[in-house]
Structure formats: structure tokens, C-alpha cells
Specification:
- Keywords: 4Fe-4S, DNA damage, DNA repair, Hydrolase, Iron, Iron-sulfur, Metal-binding.
- GO terms for molecular function: 4 iron, 4 sulfur cluster binding; deaminated base DNA N-glycosylase activity; metal ion binding.
- The protein is of the alpha/beta class and about 220 residues long.
- The protein has a single domain, classed as Uracil-DNA Glycosylase, subunit E (3-Layer(aba) Sandwich), CATH 3.40.470.
- The protein is about 40% helix and about 10% strand.
- The strands form two sheets. The chain has a five-stranded mixed beta sheet with strand order 2-1-5-7-6, with helices on both faces.
- A hairpin with a 6-residue loop joins strand 6 (about 165-170) and strand 7.
- Helix 3 crosses helix 8 (about 190-215).
- It is globular.
- The protein starts with 18 loop residues before the first helix and ends with a helix.
């Protein structure tokens, strides 16, 4: 379906909530202008039967080039945290609130530097996230970082006040746990990285514990 750039991903959603159909449609999304500079759309990845769904902010440089979520440095740290929390990455669905890499470049440099997406860009891309949630029907959603948290829980949400708590999104049938994005652990002061990693593992463990307590099966 064609639509003018600057609208919303809603203009590109297919009728189907099959993940393959959604990913194919997202590849042609022009709902905001981020597609102009990014290499490609980076859609979510993981099994359609996943009981846990993790949401980050946006793909980074490595993800944009590979076309897969969480394959760069932050993704490797997340892999370690998932392992430490006894969560099999192959059993969770990983995605981002924004599906295109937003970046800037320092003068005279070819290096692409991450730039936080605007609220307008997050809202424009949000229909893809909602469609993924409908397709997966997870029991637990882990929101990695403030952008992901605000995308689902509203602009007034404060991650620092509710980190690690078990929450509910409006009109949702799944539990929500919020935690800092792995990239914030990597960028933090060296003396805080061990504690930041521990917080991430703890919060992922909280999310995993909810799966055990619900005992729900497909």
C-alpha cells in the first residue's frame, strides 16, 4: 500500500498479523523519514510462540547493516544477561520501538552515531509494535530503556521510578517489566557497569519468574 512519507506505519500495515507478512510490509514502510538514511528496516525476530517479548529503542549501526535486532555490542551484552537470568534467547521475541536506525555524523567523519528518535518518530512507528504484540500474544513484555517504556506506557512514564516493577500496559493482557537498555550499561561509568549489569539480570529474572508463576501454555 502506498502512502506519503511523514504519516504513520498504520498506512502500511497488512491485514494479516502473520509475522512474515508484517516483516515483508515493514520493509517498504515510509511512515516517517528515517527510512531515507537507514540501510533497511530492522523488524523483530524470534518465534511466533514466544511467551516473552523484549522491546528496545531502535536498531544500531550493526543491526542496520545486518537487518537483525540486537546483534551489536548491546545485543551481546543482552545475550550475557539473558544467559545469567536462565532465559534462552531463542525462545524470546526481540524487537524495537522504532524499526529504522536514526543517526548523525560528526563533521568529516563517516562513523554513524546513534541519535535518539523523536516522539513523533516513535508514534509513527508504533503500529508495527502493536501488530507484533497482537501476533505474538506474549505473557510478559520487557521494555529496555526509556524510549521503549514511553512507547508502550505513555510519555509521563519514568523508568527510574518504576525499574524492575511488575506493571500492566493499558488494556493489555500481559505483564510488563521495565529495565535500562543494555547500551546504557555499556555507556555508563566503568565503576557502575557491574551494578548496571546486575540490575539488568535481576529485572530479566523478575520477568522470567512471571512466566513460571502464570504457568500459561498455548
Amino acid at each position: 500500500m502506498a502512502a506519503a512519507s511523514g504519516g504513520s506505519a498504520q498506512d502500511y500495515l497488512p491485514d494479516s498479523r502473520d509475522l512474515v507478512s508484517l516483516a515483508d510490509a515493514a520493509a517498504g514502510c515510509r511512515g516517517c523519514d528515517l527510512y531515507r538514511d537507514a540501510e533497511q528496516t530492522v523488524f523483530g525476530a524470534g518465534p511466533a510462540s514466544a511467551r516473552m517479548l523484549l522491546v528496545g529503542e531502535q536498531p544500531g549501526d550493526r543491526e542496520d547493516r545486518a537487518g537483525e535486532p540486537f546483534v551489536g555490542p548491546a545485543g551481546r551484552l543482552l545475550d550475557k544477561a539473558l544467559s545469567a537470568a536462565a532465559i534462552d534467547r531463542g525462545q524470546v521475541y526481540l524487537t524495537n520501538a522504532v524499526k529504522h536506525f536514526k543517526f548523525t555524523r560528526a563533521s568529516g567523519s563517516k562513523r554513524r552515531i546513534h541519535k535518539t528518535p523523536s516522539r513523533t518518530e516513535v508514534v509513527a512507528c508504533r503500529p508495527w509494535l502493536f501488530a507484533e504484540l497482537q501476533a505474538i500474544e506474549p505473557e510478559v513484555v520487557v521494555l529496555l530503556g526509556a524510549t521503549a517504556a514511553k512507547a508502550l506506557l505513555g510519555t509521563d512514564f519514568r523508568l527510574t521510578e518504576h525499574r524492575g516493577e511488575v506493571l500492566r500496559a493499558p488494556e493489555a493482557d500481559y505483564a510488563v517489566v521495565t529495565t535500562p537498555h543494555p547500551s546504557s550499561v555499556l555507556r555508563g561509568p566503568a565503576e557502575r557497569r557491574a551494578a548496571g549489569f546486575g540490575d539488568l539480570v535481576h529485572d530479566l529474572g523478575t520477568a522470567a519468574g512471571l512466566l513460571v508463576s502464570t504457568g500459561r501454555r498455548r
